[in-house]
Design goal:
By secondary structure, this protein is mainly α. It folds into two domains: about 1-35, no CATH class; about 35-70. The chain is built from three helices and two strands. It has a two-stranded parallel ribbon with strand order 1-2. It comes from Mucilaginibacter mali. This is Addiction module component.
Amino acid sequence: MELIIDFDKIEDPGKKEWLLRTLKLMGIDFQATEKPQTIDQYNKELEQGYAEIKKGNFITAEDLKIQARKW
């Protein structure tokens, strides 16, 4: 049996990462098909990221280090 995953249909980057890690952890072989990102997609992601920063949805490197020590 062959598992083919079309990553272009998974919009949430966190879900993509989770899926990849889970499959690797379970030792499941898979083929991933993914098309190169277009300039428009890239610019849209930049705009979304900038909007998140403007909303205050970010963490500083120093705060991340403090949180990581608690793990």
